[in-house]
Amino acid sequence: MIIEPSIRSNIFLNAHPKGCEQAVYEQIQEAKALPPFEGPKKVLIIGGSSGYGLSSRIALAYGAQSDTINISFETAPKGKRTGTAGWWNNIYFQQYAKETNHIHKDFVGDAFSSQMKKDVVNYIKETFGKLDLVIYSLAAGARFNESTGTLVKSSIKAIGSDAVGKTIDLADLTVKDLIIGTATEEEINDTVYVMGGSAWEDWVQTLADADVLNQGFKTISYTYIGGPTTDKIYRGGTLGKAKEDLETCARRMNQLLKDKYQGEALISSSKAVVTKASVFIPQMPVYVSCLFDVMMRHHHHETILEHKFRLFKDMVYGNKRITDDLGRIRLDHLEMEEAIQKETIHMMETLSDEALFALEGTKVFIKEFHQIHGFKFDNINYDEDTDIESLSEQLPE
Length: 397
What we know:
Layout: E1 7-8, E2 11-12, H1 17-33, E3 42-46, H2 51-63, E4 67-72, H3 85-97, E5 104-108, H4 114-128, E6 131-136, E7 142-145, E8 150-153, E9 163-169, E10 174-180, H5 185-195, H6 198-209, E11 213-223, H7 231-234, H8 238-261, E12 264-269, H9 284-297, H10 304-316, E13 329-330, H11 338-350, H12 353-358, H13 360-371, H14 388-392
Parallel strand pairs: 3-4, 3-6, 4-5, 6-11, 11-12, 12-13
Antiparallel strand pairs: 1-2, 7-8, 9-10
Helix pairs in contact: 1-2, 1-3, 2-10, 5-8, 6-8, 9-11, 9-13
């Protein structure tokens, strides 16, 4: 079939397998071109099929020659449905990573479930060996509460008053107003339950109880702090409450890991990147577009792979760690430079819609949003017929 982007209300409803392959291939080529480093040998990534989780997996598999396990919730192709981008990313990572001659295992399913924990622990004990690092990079919209038998959903909402801003409509390429409503107390609590740190802490405790953590064990999760233009949501909204909970859990785990393993629990603040949720945060698409433009002109821009490669090489396993007064690793320090922020905010306040779309940074934002779903790669003929069934048979062993 011919696969064209299907976008409804800024949500991609499909993915292109060959484009997903190209995305994985390009990140691997980037990793190969960077200097190797001494890092963890056994890594579990909870949420490693796309975004920062996938780039972390590639950075460690190729930069540190790590063995990796990934847990991700994906949908396989069926009939005219293409399957999720993460489904294809897993397949193509497996295919390319055979060249590393290391173990790379995928578990596809609910990372929150007790059954998944049992399955992963059994695999670690029988095949993998003890873990040196757990990366928690889960982006989930819902979490099943096994105690109550209910599905708890998260909400991207403001607290106290509505959040008002702009977004980019990817279907018709226009700037539109976006209003995010005010959360109820229940919505705040539910978002913290889904996106906060309790599931991360549950995983680490389960692995510790199963005696599958090495001395010197580390665990890390990712947050985003950002500047004033997105503060209403990222730090002041439901997402902010979830991130606060994540950071609280990290501090609690850090003491446990230090005492038992001479290890540590880390929070890393990443730079702004293009994610599936970007277009649903007021001002975020405009901010990221202007930021990319400014950082490219100042030669500060990093790809997602370069960003995570630097995290592990320099700051987690190297001696160039930058932290703030709360102990968070500030990998976002280039984005948060005063001059970069000042110039970015000035552009946001003064550019017309027409001038915004003319920016190189906006073109990169739109292109990358398509590319995380497998579209807009220059070397792929999207008019060619794609045999989903044939490609689906190329499952990793």
